[in-house]
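To assess whether ligand presence alters the predicted conformation, the chain was also submitted together with glycine. Input:
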Amino acid sequence: MTISTDHATVQRVSIQLAERSYDIQIAPGLLDQATAWQGLPKAGAALIVTNETVAPLYLARLQQSLKTHYPVVHVCSLPDGESHKTWESLNRIFDVLLAQACDRKTVLFALGGGVVGDITGFAAACYMRGVPFVQVPTTLLAQVDSSVGGKTAINHPLGKNMVGAFYQPERVVCDLSTLQTLPARELSAGLAEVIKYGPIADMVFLDWIEKHLGDLLARDPQALAYAVKRSCEIKAWVVGQDERESGIRAILNFGHTFGHAIEAGLGFGVWLHGEAVGCGMVMASRLSQQLGLVDAAFTERLTSLIAQAGLPVTGPDLGADVYLHHMRVDKKAEAGDIRFVLIDPPGKATVRGAPDALVAEVVQACCRA
Ligand code: NAD
Ligand code: GLY
């Protein structure tokens, strides 16, 4: 659905989850638009959770908009980075909420990328056994993926996103203008999650991404608007069928089993999540190819697109055993058997196991010697 406002056309994508349904609003300039914040739960206070990088850029504008709706707007600014997606950061949110005597109606706002969004969502799920929260994603990755669908978590030193909850936001507000200040490396990381939706669900969208990659890298507002909207539509379609990942939702993890092994093996934060996913998709496509599910031309096409998006396509040489070790603690693993999201055929994904020897062969072939 598309609606017009005084300032810009706002695109809306609905996540249909019965009483937990909500809208994603997508447009430039939403931080300052009154309509973006109307109709949210009423409360005596709001808390904006952000980080030290995003706060100087966008905090004042969100505070200004929320002041119309909430008598008090508190702020919790966290240190920046994946390495701070921890209990310590979570506790800093609880410290502010408790020090300010925030009650169970307090609404949390996650202003930032996926790290802030995931931690804030988990804090909202836990505080007083659950308070409402709103996602205000400011990275491409967060706008096309992490802010949508209710996965919230922090990392454990032994595994990524291992402690968390499914907890849906009240609304997702994607202000596309915020993408203009994103570092180029982060834009590329977000493109990995955009590209992901093609092979798993929509090859027409993959064609479109190939055609408009230059526009996306140049941050053309119309190209970004379409990429965010189409990505959110596909994610909404998947999450609407399987909120808690008992089935089809696992396909959203295409490239993530290998990617999480890269992130954990190198230490969180060395490669960006999107970079690891990009390279992981190359590995997962190559594994699909070895199993006869896609042809070599498909793997080459995907690898080329990922490389042109500015993402690594050669993995760090951690040794196949290290990859296999980290993949065994992946959340999809069952009784120690690793399960991979594979493409079968392009435009559809399947979740299945593969022999360790074949996985090791693929990892070696995709890693720097
Ligand atoms: P991030 O949150 O670390 O943000 C990337 C960097 O960009 C940070 O330094 C951040 O401060 C900065 N930043 C954010 N917005 C900015 C802006 N507009 N201008 C300038 N700088 C800006 O990383 P991310 O890629 O957004 O998210 C990655 C995280 O998301 C990972 O922890 C991953 O596990 C998680 N994730 C979660 C889901 C989910 O479904 N919940 C899905 C995918 C990824
Ligand atoms: N990012 C994967 C999911 O939301 O399920």
